Amino acid sequence: MDMMTFPKGFLWGGAIAANQAEGAYLANGKGLTTVDLLPTGKKRWEIMQGQLPSYEPLEGEFYPSHEAIEFYHQYKEDIALFAEMGFKALRLSISWARIFPNGDDVEPNEAGLQFYDNVFDELLKYDIEPVVTIAHFDVPVHLVKKYGSWKNRKLVSFFENYATTLFKRYKGKVKYWMTFNEINMLLHLPFVGAGLVFEEGEDQKQAKYQAAHHQLVASALAVKAGHEINPKMKIGCMLAAGQTYPYSCNPDDVFAAMEKDRESFFFIDVQARGEYPGYAKRFFKENHLTIVMEDQDQQLLKQHTVDYIGFSYYASRTTSGDLDQHKTTAGNVFGSVENPYLEKSEWGWTIDPKGFRITANQLYDRYQKPLFVVENGLGAVDIPTEDGKVNDDYRIDYLRKHVAEMSEAMKDGVEILGYTSWGPIDLVSASTGEMKKRYGYIYVEKDNEGNGTLKRSKKKSFDWYKQVIASNGEKL
Questions:
Q1: Angle 95-159-313 from CA coordinates, rounded to 5°
Q2: What is the pLDDT of residue 332?
Q3: Residue 331: pLDDT over 90
Q4: For the residues of 316-378, what is the DSSP string, one character each?
Q5: Which of 236, 222, 363, 413 is nearest to 310 (CA)?
Q6: Global pTM?
Q7: What is the signed CA dihedral for 380, 386, 389, 394, rounded to 10 degrees?
Q8: Domain segments of the chain: what residues?
Q9: Which residues act catalytically here (predicted)?
Q10: How far is C-alpha 286 from the chain's CA centre?
């Protein structure tokens, strides 16, 4: 048996998102998106949960997405640095409101379409494959204000039109697509994941799962459209993943862990298998949820499943049947019982490389579809030396161990298309809006208050990752 881990053509690279990197939030006809209404500070968390004070940015608040790291104006410089590292792929997203400023526009915004043409051309100049997310945590604010966002069935046709526009425009430039970023975040950060704003007394659970159904149907319609426009396109889904461990061998803990995983798998079960699983139907019934469907929905879901499973992995999780008895910690928004066997990052996220291998095996065993690791990385405070260097050995150590475990998963028989680590260049943190929570191989000179020159400089990890790619994962 050939035990060589990484095949020729393995897609090494990095991942960014429009709302965390581009800035230029109203440039050349772009409309407001939901992320443009997320300030830093205490209000950010309340808004992410669906409590929106205004449909316009408020005076006196700092909105980090408005400038971000100005990838919109500096993409050529940044892509040149990615190319210097040897990237084979860059995962990035398209801002819906750059293409359709209101979301329901009759015609797309040509300036927005041209911007992404330029970005894709620049990537292809260096033989870097674009891996594109259609909706990465941004909904045009007009769709939220006028229609109630994904609570409204009309969003399905607006999204289908948006996706179809992208597929037609970029059919010769983009092969790999994903419909929704971390689609399961809808349940945990409903404003971020689906632009949901809740009225006082509204049944939030009903609203979330109805919105989820609309996104799942929209995803299926996008898969259908993409395959019709270019049968060679590979269209995937994307999950915020991470194995949930039972705190003990107590069957109640084991069952709680299974249920916690199902909370996320629910979305991918539908996108990859084409139907609602039995446990979801039971959940709807026992929680008195009525999911309104149209006659053709179940057939659409069944006939237009995804080609691959994209997933992010930052940390594993731990749970118990009796949560009151345990301390908890953070981890990519998912609360977790504290695992005594694992170290934690500066933000309280568990560091669990072996969990990466376990998660990859779990997903592949469940779906039997190719996987694509589209986010993995360590958020940390990087402090430059007097001569401006960042010696981020802690990041190298984290990534080295995770890539090694990915290698082991592939030896287990797991099919993985590529690995795009999160934030190859420092960008705005999605959860906190901070700049000091850095992931990149490239340092961006900017602080949490928006001060700085935006100057780019290479960290120690830059050369390390360059070596990893050049050796196709052999030299870690």
A1: 60
A2: 54
A3: no
A4: -EEE-S-GGGS-EE-STT--EE--TT-EE-TTS-EE-HHHHHHHHHHHHHHH-S-EEEEE---
A5: 236
A6: 0.96
A7: -30
A8: 11-470
A9: 375
A10: 31
DSSP H or E stretch at residue 71:
helix 71-85
Tokens 């981020």 identify what position? Answer: 392
Dihedral (C-alpha) 250, 252, 254, 255: value to the nearest 10 degrees?
160
Please answer whether residues 399 and 351 qualify as being in contact, where contact means their C-beta atoms are separated by less than 8 angstroms.
no
pLDDT confidence tier of residue 326, bands split at 50, 70 and 90: confident
10 Å CB burial of residue 8 (0-12, 13-18, 19+) is exposed
Place of tokens 């968390």: 45
- Summarize pLDDT for 215-264 with one digit per residue, the tens: 999 999 999 999 999 999 999 999 999 999 999 999 999 999 999 999 99
d(CA 458, CA 442): 5
375 is catalytic: yes
Q: Which of 22, 160, 375, 405 is catalytic?
A: 375
From 3.20.20.70, 3.20.20.80, 3.10.20.30, 1.10.1740.10, which CATH number describes the 11-470 domain?
Answer: 3.20.20.80
* The residue type at 166: L
What is the structure's pLDDT at 1?
Answer: 37
Two structure tokens written together for 93:
């997203």
